[in-house]
Amino acid sequence: MEKIRKIVLLGAGNMAGHLSKALVRCGLRLEEVMSRSPESGKRLARQLGARFIEKIEDLNQDADLYILAVNDSSIAQIAGTLRLKNKIVVHTSGTVGIDVLNPVSRKRGVFYPLQTFRKGKRIRFSNVPICIEADQAGVERTLLDLATRVSTSVHVITSEQRKILHLAAVFASNFTNYMYAVAEDLISQDDIPFDLLAPLIRQTASNIRHTGIFGLQTGPAIREEWAVIEQHLELLKDRKVYRDIYNLMTQSIIQQQHRNAKL
Amino acid sequence: MEKIRKIVLLGAGNMAGHLSKALVRCGLRLEEVMSRSPESGKRLARQLGARFIEKIEDLNQDADLYILAVNDSSIAQIAGTLRLKNKIVVHTSGTVGIDVLNPVSRKRGVFYPLQTFRKGKRIRFSNVPICIEADQAGVERTLLDLATRVSTSVHVITSEQRKILHLAAVFASNFTNYMYAVAEDLISQDDIPFDLLAPLIRQTASNIRHTGIFGLQTGPAIREEWAVIEQHLELLKDRKVYRDIYNLMTQSIIQQQHRNAKL
After folding, report:
1. What is this model's ipTM?
2. Cβ of A24: how many Cβ atoms within 10 Å?
3. What torsion do the CA atoms of A146, A150, A156, A159 make, to the nearest 10 degrees?
4. Which residue of A has its CA nearest to B191?
Protein backbone atom coordinates (compact mmCIF):
# COMPACT_ATOMS: atom_id res chain seq x y z
CA MET A 1 0.00 0.00 0.00
CA GLU A 2 1.23 3.44 -0.90
CA LYS A 3 0.75 6.43 1.30
CA ILE A 4 -0.99 9.28 -0.48
CA ARG A 5 0.80 12.54 0.17
CA LYS A 6 0.51 14.74 -2.89
CA ILE A 7 -2.71 14.93 -4.86
CA VAL A 8 -3.45 16.48 -8.23
CA LEU A 9 -7.05 17.37 -9.02
CA LEU A 10 -8.48 17.65 -12.51
CA GLY A 11 -11.78 19.53 -12.51
CA ALA A 12 -13.23 22.45 -10.56
CA GLY A 13 -16.97 21.73 -10.55
CA ASN A 14 -19.23 20.70 -7.68
CA MET A 15 -17.78 17.22 -7.21
CA ALA A 16 -14.17 18.47 -7.52
CA GLY A 17 -14.78 21.27 -5.04
CA HIS A 18 -16.59 19.26 -2.39
CA LEU A 19 -14.26 16.28 -2.54
CA SER A 20 -11.02 18.25 -2.59
CA LYS A 21 -12.08 20.44 0.32
CA ALA A 22 -12.98 17.34 2.32
CA LEU A 23 -9.55 15.87 1.58
CA VAL A 24 -7.80 19.06 2.68
CA ARG A 25 -9.91 19.20 5.86
CA CYS A 26 -8.65 15.68 6.61
CA GLY A 27 -5.04 16.82 6.37
CA LEU A 28 -4.24 15.81 2.81
CA ARG A 29 -2.31 18.06 0.48
CA LEU A 30 -3.79 19.21 -2.80
CA GLU A 31 -0.81 20.11 -4.96
CA GLU A 32 -2.37 21.24 -8.22
CA VAL A 33 -5.78 21.96 -9.69
CA MET A 34 -6.27 21.73 -13.42
CA SER A 35 -9.38 23.09 -15.06
CA ARG A 36 -10.40 24.33 -18.47
CA SER A 37 -12.33 27.03 -16.70
CA PRO A 38 -9.60 29.36 -15.38
CA GLU A 39 -11.98 31.32 -13.20
CA SER A 40 -13.36 28.47 -11.10
CA GLY A 41 -10.06 26.60 -11.35
CA LYS A 42 -8.08 29.50 -9.90
CA ARG A 43 -10.66 30.10 -7.18
CA LEU A 44 -10.63 26.48 -6.09
CA ALA A 45 -6.82 26.29 -6.23
CA ARG A 46 -6.63 29.35 -3.99
CA GLN A 47 -9.11 27.85 -1.51
CA LEU A 48 -7.08 24.64 -1.38
CA GLY A 49 -3.67 26.28 -1.23
CA ALA A 50 -2.82 24.57 -4.52
CA ARG A 51 -1.29 25.70 -7.80
CA PHE A 52 -3.60 26.30 -10.73
CA ILE A 53 -2.57 24.56 -13.95
CA GLU A 54 -4.15 25.26 -17.29
CA LYS A 55 -2.86 22.46 -19.52
CA ILE A 56 -2.45 18.74 -18.97
CA GLU A 57 1.14 18.95 -20.30
CA ASP A 58 2.07 21.26 -17.43
CA LEU A 59 0.87 18.92 -14.67
CA ASN A 60 3.30 17.74 -12.05
CA GLN A 61 4.21 14.13 -12.86
CA ASP A 62 5.29 13.25 -9.33
CA ALA A 63 2.07 13.36 -7.32
CA ASP A 64 0.82 10.17 -5.64
CA LEU A 65 -2.76 10.44 -6.85
CA TYR A 66 -4.53 12.05 -9.79
CA ILE A 67 -8.27 12.59 -9.35
CA LEU A 68 -10.36 13.16 -12.47
CA ALA A 69 -13.43 14.87 -11.00
CA VAL A 70 -14.87 16.01 -14.31
CA ASN A 71 -18.05 15.21 -16.19
CA ASP A 72 -18.39 11.83 -17.84
CA SER A 73 -17.54 12.87 -21.39
CA SER A 74 -14.43 14.73 -20.25
CA ILE A 75 -13.04 11.64 -18.51
CA ALA A 76 -12.45 9.82 -21.80
CA GLN A 77 -11.06 12.98 -23.34
CA ILE A 78 -8.54 13.54 -20.55
CA ALA A 79 -7.70 9.84 -20.48
CA GLY A 80 -6.76 10.19 -24.14
CA THR A 81 -4.06 12.73 -23.28
CA LEU A 82 -2.90 12.14 -19.72
CA ARG A 83 0.02 9.70 -19.33
CA LEU A 84 1.30 8.82 -15.87
CA LYS A 85 4.18 6.52 -15.02
CA ASN A 86 3.13 4.23 -12.22
CA LYS A 87 0.97 6.83 -10.51
CA ILE A 88 -2.53 6.15 -9.23
CA VAL A 89 -5.32 7.71 -11.27
CA VAL A 90 -9.01 7.62 -10.34
CA HIS A 91 -12.21 9.10 -11.66
CA THR A 92 -15.25 9.96 -9.53
CA SER A 93 -18.09 9.02 -11.87
CA GLY A 94 -21.02 6.74 -11.10
CA THR A 95 -21.57 5.68 -14.68
CA VAL A 96 -18.18 5.31 -16.34
CA GLY A 97 -16.28 2.02 -16.14
CA ILE A 98 -12.80 1.78 -14.68
CA ASP A 99 -11.32 0.73 -18.03
CA VAL A 100 -11.63 4.22 -19.50
CA LEU A 101 -8.43 4.88 -17.53
CA ASN A 102 -6.49 2.06 -19.21
CA PRO A 103 -4.34 4.39 -21.35
CA VAL A 104 -3.39 6.60 -18.40
CA SER A 105 -1.71 4.26 -15.93
CA ARG A 106 -1.61 0.66 -14.78
CA LYS A 107 -2.65 1.87 -11.33
CA ARG A 108 -6.24 2.94 -11.82
CA GLY A 109 -9.34 3.10 -9.75
CA VAL A 110 -12.69 4.71 -9.09
CA PHE A 111 -13.43 6.90 -6.09
CA TYR A 112 -17.16 7.59 -6.25
CA PRO A 113 -18.75 9.63 -3.44
CA LEU A 114 -22.50 8.99 -3.59
CA GLN A 115 -24.12 12.28 -2.70
CA THR A 116 -25.84 15.22 -4.36
CA PHE A 117 -23.46 18.16 -4.33
CA ARG A 118 -24.59 21.74 -4.65
CA LYS A 119 -22.51 24.84 -4.92
CA GLY A 120 -22.22 26.79 -1.69
CA LYS A 121 -23.77 24.05 0.43
CA ARG A 122 -21.18 22.34 2.60
CA ILE A 123 -21.63 18.59 2.89
CA ARG A 124 -20.50 16.69 5.97
CA PHE A 125 -18.33 14.21 4.12
CA SER A 126 -17.99 11.82 7.06
CA ASN A 127 -21.46 10.44 6.23
CA VAL A 128 -21.02 10.28 2.47
CA PRO A 129 -20.70 6.70 1.17
CA ILE A 130 -17.56 6.33 -0.91
CA CYS A 131 -17.51 3.52 -3.46
CA ILE A 132 -14.09 2.21 -4.37
CA GLU A 133 -12.98 0.11 -7.29
CA ALA A 134 -9.48 -0.87 -8.38
CA ASP A 135 -7.83 -3.42 -10.69
CA GLN A 136 -4.91 -4.07 -8.38
CA ALA A 137 -5.16 -5.10 -4.74
CA GLY A 138 -2.46 -2.60 -3.74
CA VAL A 139 -4.31 0.27 -5.37
CA GLU A 140 -7.54 -0.85 -3.71
CA ARG A 141 -5.89 -0.79 -0.28
CA THR A 142 -4.44 2.66 -0.94
CA LEU A 143 -7.82 4.02 -2.01
CA LEU A 144 -9.58 2.37 0.93
CA ASP A 145 -7.09 3.97 3.27
CA LEU A 146 -7.67 7.35 1.70
CA ALA A 147 -11.47 6.96 1.70
CA THR A 148 -11.59 6.02 5.37
CA ARG A 149 -9.78 9.24 6.18
CA VAL A 150 -12.72 11.28 4.86
CA SER A 151 -15.72 9.01 5.45
CA THR A 152 -16.99 6.33 7.81
CA SER A 153 -18.93 4.68 4.98
CA VAL A 154 -16.51 3.08 2.52
CA HIS A 155 -17.47 0.28 0.13
CA VAL A 156 -15.67 -1.77 -2.51
CA ILE A 157 -18.04 -2.30 -5.42
CA THR A 158 -17.70 -3.33 -9.06
CA SER A 159 -18.29 -1.11 -12.11
CA GLU A 160 -21.58 -2.96 -12.74
CA GLN A 161 -22.78 -2.42 -9.18
CA ARG A 162 -21.79 1.22 -9.38
CA LYS A 163 -23.86 1.72 -12.52
CA ILE A 164 -26.92 0.19 -10.84
CA LEU A 165 -26.29 2.29 -7.75
CA HIS A 166 -26.12 5.43 -9.87
CA LEU A 167 -29.37 4.48 -11.60
CA ALA A 168 -31.01 3.89 -8.21
CA ALA A 169 -29.72 7.28 -7.07
CA VAL A 170 -31.49 8.92 -10.01
CA PHE A 171 -34.78 7.50 -8.73
CA ALA A 172 -34.03 8.19 -5.06
CA SER A 173 -32.75 11.73 -5.52
CA ASN A 174 -33.32 13.33 -8.96
CA PHE A 175 -36.84 12.02 -9.51
CA THR A 176 -37.69 12.63 -5.88
CA ASN A 177 -36.57 16.23 -6.16
CA TYR A 178 -38.73 16.53 -9.25
CA MET A 179 -41.72 15.27 -7.27
CA TYR A 180 -41.02 18.00 -4.70
CA ALA A 181 -40.86 20.53 -7.56
CA VAL A 182 -44.21 19.36 -8.94
CA ALA A 183 -45.76 19.65 -5.47
CA GLU A 184 -44.35 23.15 -5.09
CA ASP A 185 -45.69 24.13 -8.51
CA LEU A 186 -49.17 22.82 -7.69
CA ILE A 187 -49.58 24.62 -4.38
CA SER A 188 -47.89 27.85 -5.44
CA GLN A 189 -50.62 28.35 -8.04
CA ASP A 190 -53.10 28.33 -5.18
CA ASP A 191 -51.12 30.66 -2.90
CA ILE A 192 -50.34 27.94 -0.39
CA PRO A 193 -46.91 28.42 1.20
CA PHE A 194 -44.44 25.58 0.63
CA ASP A 195 -43.74 25.45 4.38
CA LEU A 196 -46.85 23.34 4.72
CA LEU A 197 -45.23 20.49 2.78
CA ALA A 198 -41.73 20.65 4.25
CA PRO A 199 -42.39 18.58 7.43
CA LEU A 200 -44.10 15.89 5.34
CA ILE A 201 -41.13 15.69 2.99
CA ARG A 202 -38.67 15.41 5.87
CA GLN A 203 -40.75 12.78 7.65
CA THR A 204 -41.11 10.70 4.48
CA ALA A 205 -37.35 10.74 3.99
CA SER A 206 -36.62 9.97 7.63
CA ASN A 207 -38.97 6.95 7.60
CA ILE A 208 -36.69 5.07 5.21
CA ARG A 209 -34.24 3.84 7.83
CA HIS A 210 -35.79 0.40 7.65
CA THR A 211 -35.77 -1.74 4.57
CA GLY A 212 -38.93 -2.95 2.88
CA ILE A 213 -39.72 0.57 1.78
CA PHE A 214 -42.72 -0.38 -0.32
CA GLY A 215 -44.32 -1.46 2.96
CA LEU A 216 -44.24 2.18 4.10
CA GLN A 217 -46.41 3.28 1.17
CA THR A 218 -49.42 5.38 2.24
CA GLY A 219 -51.96 7.43 0.26
CA PRO A 220 -54.80 6.85 -2.19
CA ALA A 221 -52.94 4.56 -4.63
CA ILE A 222 -51.93 1.88 -2.10
CA ARG A 223 -55.42 2.04 -0.55
CA GLU A 224 -57.01 2.05 -4.02
CA GLU A 225 -59.24 4.97 -3.08
CA TRP A 226 -60.69 5.51 -6.53
CA ALA A 227 -62.86 8.49 -5.55
CA VAL A 228 -59.75 10.35 -4.37
CA ILE A 229 -57.75 9.28 -7.42
CA GLU A 230 -60.54 10.55 -9.70
CA GLN A 231 -60.64 13.84 -7.80
CA HIS A 232 -56.88 14.23 -8.23
CA LEU A 233 -56.99 13.47 -11.95
CA GLU A 234 -59.78 16.03 -12.32
CA LEU A 235 -57.64 18.64 -10.52
CA LEU A 236 -54.84 17.83 -12.97
CA LYS A 237 -57.00 17.94 -16.09
CA ASP A 238 -55.12 20.93 -17.53
CA ARG A 239 -51.67 19.65 -16.54
CA LYS A 240 -51.04 16.81 -18.96
CA VAL A 241 -47.51 15.97 -17.84
CA TYR A 242 -48.41 15.88 -14.15
CA ARG A 243 -51.51 13.85 -14.96
CA ASP A 244 -49.43 11.31 -16.89
CA ILE A 245 -47.02 11.02 -13.97
CA TYR A 246 -49.88 10.67 -11.51
CA ASN A 247 -51.49 7.93 -13.61
CA LEU A 248 -48.29 5.98 -14.15
CA MET A 249 -47.20 6.17 -10.51
CA THR A 250 -50.64 5.20 -9.25
CA GLN A 251 -50.91 2.26 -11.64
CA SER A 252 -47.41 1.09 -10.76
CA ILE A 253 -48.06 1.23 -7.02
CA ILE A 254 -51.33 -0.70 -7.38
CA GLN A 255 -49.75 -3.33 -9.66
CA GLN A 256 -46.82 -3.75 -7.28
CA GLN A 257 -49.25 -4.16 -4.39
CA HIS A 258 -51.16 -6.86 -6.27
CA ARG A 259 -47.94 -8.66 -7.22
CA ASN A 260 -46.81 -8.61 -3.58
CA ALA A 261 -50.20 -9.95 -2.47
CA LYS A 262 -49.77 -12.95 -4.77
CA LEU A 263 -46.29 -13.81 -3.46
CA MET B 1 -65.03 31.41 21.01
CA GLU B 2 -65.83 28.25 22.94
CA LYS B 3 -63.30 26.51 25.09
CA ILE B 4 -62.84 22.88 24.19
CA ARG B 5 -62.92 20.69 27.26
CA LYS B 6 -64.43 17.35 26.39
CA ILE B 7 -63.63 15.65 23.09
CA VAL B 8 -65.23 12.64 21.44
CA LEU B 9 -63.19 10.79 18.84
CA LEU B 10 -64.67 8.70 16.04
CA GLY B 11 -62.06 6.38 14.53
CA ALA B 12 -59.12 4.40 15.84
CA GLY B 13 -56.74 4.25 12.87
CA ASN B 14 -53.40 5.97 12.34
CA MET B 15 -54.76 9.50 12.09
CA ALA B 16 -57.13 9.03 15.06
CA GLY B 17 -54.38 7.54 17.21
CA HIS B 18 -51.68 10.09 16.45
CA LEU B 19 -53.97 13.12 16.72
CA SER B 20 -55.77 12.07 19.88
CA LYS B 21 -52.54 11.21 21.68
CA ALA B 22 -51.14 14.62 20.74
CA LEU B 23 -54.26 16.28 22.15
CA VAL B 24 -53.99 14.36 25.40
CA ARG B 25 -50.29 15.20 25.69
CA CYS B 26 -51.31 18.86 25.41
CA GLY B 27 -53.68 18.51 28.36
CA LEU B 28 -56.98 17.97 26.55
CA ARG B 29 -59.47 15.38 27.65
CA LEU B 30 -60.58 12.60 25.32
CA GLU B 31 -63.93 11.48 26.69
CA GLU B 32 -64.98 8.71 24.32
CA VAL B 33 -63.58 6.74 21.40
CA MET B 34 -65.95 5.18 18.92
CA SER B 35 -64.76 2.62 16.40
CA ARG B 36 -66.27 -0.18 14.37
CA SER B 37 -63.15 -2.15 15.15
CA PRO B 38 -63.57 -3.02 18.85
CA GLU B 39 -60.01 -4.27 19.20
CA SER B 40 -58.18 -1.12 18.10
CA GLY B 41 -60.96 1.07 19.51
CA LYS B 42 -60.65 -0.41 23.00
CA ARG B 43 -56.88 -0.26 22.89
CA LEU B 44 -56.84 3.39 21.91
CA ALA B 45 -59.54 4.28 24.46
CA ARG B 46 -57.44 2.65 27.17
CA GLN B 47 -54.32 4.54 26.08
CA LEU B 48 -56.25 7.81 26.18
CA GLY B 49 -58.09 7.16 29.42
CA ALA B 50 -61.37 7.37 27.49
CA ARG B 51 -64.53 5.22 27.29
CA PHE B 52 -64.91 2.93 24.32
CA ILE B 53 -68.25 3.24 22.52
CA GLU B 54 -69.43 0.83 19.88
CA LYS B 55 -72.46 2.56 18.35
CA ILE B 56 -73.11 6.12 17.28
CA GLU B 57 -76.40 6.11 19.21
CA ASP B 58 -74.52 5.55 22.46
CA LEU B 59 -72.24 8.56 22.07
CA ASN B 60 -72.24 11.26 24.71
CA GLN B 61 -74.17 14.23 23.31
CA ASP B 62 -72.56 16.80 25.61
CA ALA B 63 -68.94 16.92 24.48
CA ASP B 64 -67.53 20.17 23.08
CA LEU B 65 -65.94 18.68 19.99
CA TYR B 66 -66.52 15.61 17.84
CA ILE B 67 -63.59 14.55 15.66
CA LEU B 68 -64.30 12.24 12.72
CA ALA B 69 -60.85 10.78 12.10
CA VAL B 70 -62.00 8.02 9.79
CA ASN B 71 -61.37 7.24 6.13
CA ASP B 72 -63.03 9.38 3.50
CA SER B 73 -65.91 7.08 2.64
CA SER B 74 -66.81 6.60 6.31
CA ILE B 75 -67.12 10.35 6.87
CA ALA B 76 -70.24 10.61 4.68
CA GLN B 77 -71.61 7.44 6.24
CA ILE B 78 -71.22 8.71 9.80
CA ALA B 79 -72.49 12.15 8.80
CA GLY B 80 -75.65 10.43 7.63
CA THR B 81 -76.33 9.15 11.15
CA LEU B 82 -74.69 11.48 13.64
CA ARG B 83 -76.89 14.37 14.85
CA LEU B 84 -75.46 16.93 17.26
CA LYS B 85 -77.24 19.91 18.73
CA ASN B 86 -75.00 22.94 18.49
CA LYS B 87 -71.80 20.99 19.06
CA ILE B 88 -68.68 21.42 16.96
CA VAL B 89 -67.95 18.58 14.56
CA VAL B 90 -64.81 18.29 12.39
CA HIS B 91 -63.30 15.78 10.05
CA THR B 92 -59.57 15.33 9.41
CA SER B 93 -59.53 14.53 5.70
CA GLY B 94 -57.49 16.25 3.01
CA THR B 95 -59.89 15.48 0.21
CA VAL B 96 -63.43 15.75 1.58
CA GLY B 97 -65.23 19.11 1.57
CA ILE B 98 -66.57 20.69 4.75
CA ASP B 99 -70.17 20.43 3.50
CA VAL B 100 -70.29 16.67 4.04
CA LEU B 101 -70.90 17.62 7.68
CA ASN B 102 -73.98 19.75 6.88
CA PRO B 103 -76.47 17.23 8.30
CA VAL B 104 -74.55 16.78 11.56
CA SER B 105 -74.38 20.26 13.07
CA ARG B 106 -74.35 23.93 12.14
CA LYS B 107 -70.96 24.18 13.83
CA ARG B 108 -68.70 22.30 11.48
CA GLY B 109 -65.12 22.43 10.48
CA VAL B 110 -62.07 20.64 9.16
CA PHE B 111 -58.98 19.89 11.23
CA TYR B 112 -56.44 18.46 8.78
CA PRO B 113 -52.96 17.60 10.08
CA LEU B 114 -50.71 17.30 7.04
CA GLN B 115 -48.31 14.50 7.83
CA THR B 116 -47.73 10.85 6.99
CA PHE B 117 -48.70 8.78 10.01
CA ARG B 118 -47.41 5.30 10.63
CA LYS B 119 -48.35 2.91 13.35
CA GLY B 120 -45.85 2.71 16.16
CA LYS B 121 -43.86 5.72 14.99
CA ARG B 122 -44.41 8.69 17.26
CA ILE B 123 -44.66 12.01 15.44
CA ARG B 124 -43.62 15.25 17.06
CA PHE B 125 -46.91 17.06 16.51
CA SER B 126 -45.53 20.51 17.28
CA ASN B 127 -44.07 20.62 13.75
CA VAL B 128 -47.09 19.19 11.95
CA PRO B 129 -48.96 21.81 9.89
CA ILE B 130 -52.64 21.84 10.85
CA CYS B 131 -55.06 23.16 8.24
CA ILE B 132 -58.27 24.63 9.62
CA GLU B 133 -61.52 25.39 7.88
CA ALA B 134 -64.86 26.48 9.35
CA ASP B 135 -68.13 28.02 8.13
CA GLN B 136 -68.58 30.22 11.18
CA ALA B 137 -66.02 32.68 12.50
CA GLY B 138 -66.58 31.49 16.08
CA VAL B 139 -65.92 27.89 15.16
CA GLU B 140 -62.81 28.94 13.26
CA ARG B 141 -61.47 30.76 16.32
CA THR B 142 -62.19 27.75 18.53
CA LEU B 143 -60.41 25.39 16.16
CA LEU B 144 -57.47 27.78 15.76
CA ASP B 145 -57.15 27.94 19.51
CA LEU B 146 -57.18 24.16 19.76
CA ALA B 147 -54.72 23.72 16.88
CA THR B 148 -52.21 26.16 18.34
CA ARG B 149 -52.19 24.07 21.52
CA VAL B 150 -50.74 21.10 19.60
CA SER B 151 -48.77 22.72 16.78
CA THR B 152 -46.79 25.85 15.98
CA SER B 153 -47.84 25.63 12.31
CA VAL B 154 -51.56 26.42 12.00
CA HIS B 155 -53.18 27.61 8.78
CA VAL B 156 -56.68 28.59 7.70
CA ILE B 157 -57.29 27.27 4.20
CA THR B 158 -60.32 26.62 2.02
CA SER B 159 -61.66 23.22 0.93
CA GLU B 160 -60.30 23.86 -2.57
CA GLN B 161 -56.84 24.72 -1.28
CA ARG B 162 -56.90 21.67 0.96
CA LYS B 163 -57.65 19.41 -2.00
CA ILE B 164 -54.71 20.85 -3.94
CA LEU B 165 -52.50 20.52 -0.89
CA HIS B 166 -53.49 16.87 -0.52
CA LEU B 167 -52.74 16.26 -4.20
CA ALA B 168 -49.35 17.94 -3.79
CA ALA B 169 -48.71 15.76 -0.74
CA VAL B 170 -49.29 12.66 -2.87
CA PHE B 171 -46.45 13.78 -5.16
CA ALA B 172 -44.20 14.97 -2.32
CA SER B 173 -44.67 11.94 -0.08
CA ASN B 174 -46.41 8.91 -1.64
CA PHE B 175 -44.71 9.07 -5.03
CA THR B 176 -41.43 9.98 -3.40
CA ASN B 177 -41.63 6.95 -1.14
CA TYR B 178 -42.33 4.86 -4.22
CA MET B 179 -39.17 6.24 -5.85
CA TYR B 180 -37.26 5.14 -2.74
CA ALA B 181 -38.87 1.70 -3.05
CA VAL B 182 -37.84 1.41 -6.72
CA ALA B 183 -34.28 2.40 -5.80
CA GLU B 184 -34.22 -0.21 -3.03
CA ASP B 185 -35.56 -2.86 -5.39
CA LEU B 186 -32.92 -2.06 -8.04
CA ILE B 187 -29.92 -2.23 -5.73
CA SER B 188 -31.11 -5.17 -3.65
CA GLN B 189 -31.04 -7.31 -6.80
CA ASP B 190 -27.36 -6.53 -7.03
CA ASP B 191 -26.56 -7.14 -3.35
CA ILE B 192 -25.87 -3.50 -2.64
CA PRO B 193 -26.92 -2.49 0.89
CA PHE B 194 -29.57 0.22 1.09
CA ASP B 195 -27.39 2.15 3.56
CA LEU B 196 -25.50 3.50 0.58
CA LEU B 197 -28.56 5.44 -0.57
CA ALA B 198 -29.81 6.69 2.79
CA PRO B 199 -27.53 9.76 3.12
CA LEU B 200 -28.43 10.82 -0.43
CA ILE B 201 -32.14 10.56 0.32
CA ARG B 202 -31.80 12.60 3.52
CA GLN B 203 -29.68 15.25 1.82
CA THR B 204 -32.14 15.58 -1.07
CA ALA B 205 -35.01 16.09 1.37
CA SER B 206 -33.04 18.54 3.52
CA ASN B 207 -32.11 20.66 0.47
CA ILE B 208 -35.74 21.71 -0.03
CA ARG B 209 -35.77 24.46 2.59
CA HIS B 210 -35.54 27.06 -0.15
CA THR B 211 -38.20 27.55 -2.75
CA GLY B 212 -37.51 27.20 -6.44
CA ILE B 213 -37.07 23.47 -6.06
CA PHE B 214 -36.76 22.75 -9.75
CA GLY B 215 -33.58 24.82 -9.61
CA LEU B 216 -32.08 22.17 -7.30
CA GLN B 217 -32.48 19.47 -9.94
CA THR B 218 -29.26 17.50 -10.57
CA GLY B 219 -28.56 14.32 -12.53
CA PRO B 220 -28.52 13.14 -16.14
CA ALA B 221 -31.98 14.45 -17.16
CA ILE B 222 -31.41 18.10 -16.27
CA ARG B 223 -27.93 17.94 -17.83
CA GLU B 224 -29.34 16.06 -20.85
CA GLU B 225 -26.56 13.48 -20.64
CA TRP B 226 -27.93 11.19 -23.30
CA ALA B 227 -25.18 8.59 -23.00
CA VAL B 228 -26.02 8.12 -19.31
CA ILE B 229 -29.77 8.10 -20.00
CA GLU B 230 -29.25 5.41 -22.67
CA GLN B 231 -27.16 3.36 -20.25
CA HIS B 232 -29.90 3.61 -17.61
CA LEU B 233 -32.63 2.58 -20.06
CA GLU B 234 -30.49 -0.37 -21.11
CA LEU B 235 -30.11 -1.43 -17.46
CA LEU B 236 -33.91 -1.23 -17.14
CA LYS B 237 -34.65 -3.15 -20.33
CA ASP B 238 -36.32 -6.01 -18.44
CA ARG B 239 -38.20 -3.75 -16.02
CA LYS B 240 -40.93 -2.23 -18.15
CA VAL B 241 -42.66 -0.27 -15.37
CA TYR B 242 -39.44 1.27 -14.07
CA ARG B 243 -38.37 2.04 -17.62
CA ASP B 244 -41.67 3.81 -18.31
CA ILE B 245 -41.26 5.86 -15.13
CA TYR B 246 -37.66 6.67 -16.01
CA ASN B 247 -38.66 7.80 -19.49
CA LEU B 248 -41.59 9.91 -18.37
CA MET B 249 -39.69 11.60 -15.54
CA THR B 250 -36.67 12.29 -17.74
CA GLN B 251 -38.80 13.75 -20.55
CA SER B 252 -40.77 15.88 -18.09
CA ILE B 253 -37.63 17.28 -16.48
CA ILE B 254 -36.10 18.12 -19.86
CA GLN B 255 -39.32 19.74 -21.12
CA GLN B 256 -39.67 21.77 -17.94
CA GLN B 257 -36.07 22.91 -18.30
CA HIS B 258 -36.69 24.03 -21.88
CA ARG B 259 -39.88 25.84 -20.89
CA ASN B 260 -38.01 27.65 -18.09
CA ALA B 261 -35.23 28.61 -20.51
CA LYS B 262 -37.77 30.29 -22.81
CA LEU B 263 -39.33 32.37 -20.00
Report:
1. 0.93
2. 17
3. -90
4. A161
Q: Which residues of chain A neighbour B118 with C-beta distances below 8 Å?
A: 207, 216, 218
pLDDT surpassing 80 at residue B170: yes
Residue of A177, A182, A219 with shortest CB distance to B204: A177
The candidate with the shortest Cα–Cα distance to B17, out of A202, B143, B42, B145, is B42
Return residues 185-214 of A near B (CB < 8 Å).
185-209, 211, 213-214
Q: For all residues of chain A together, what is the average pLDDT?
A: 94
Find chain B residues with C-beta within 8 A of A95's C-beta: 220, 228, 231
DSSP-derived 3-state class of residue A226: helix
* B226 in reach of chain A (CB within 8 A): no
Predicted local distance difference test score (pLDDT) of residue B262: 86
Find out whether A196 and B153 touch, Cβ atoms under 8 Å: yes
Instruction: Evaluate whether B33 touches B45 at the Cβ level (below 8 Å).
Output: yes
For residue range A113-137, what is the model confidence (pLDDT) as tens digits? 999 887 777 888 999 999 999 999 9
Instruction: Report d(CA A259, CA A262) in Å as an integer.
Output: 5
CA distance B252 to A178: 9
pLDDT in tens, A217-231: 999 999 999 999 999
Highest mean pLDDT among B56-60, B166-170, B187-191: B166-170
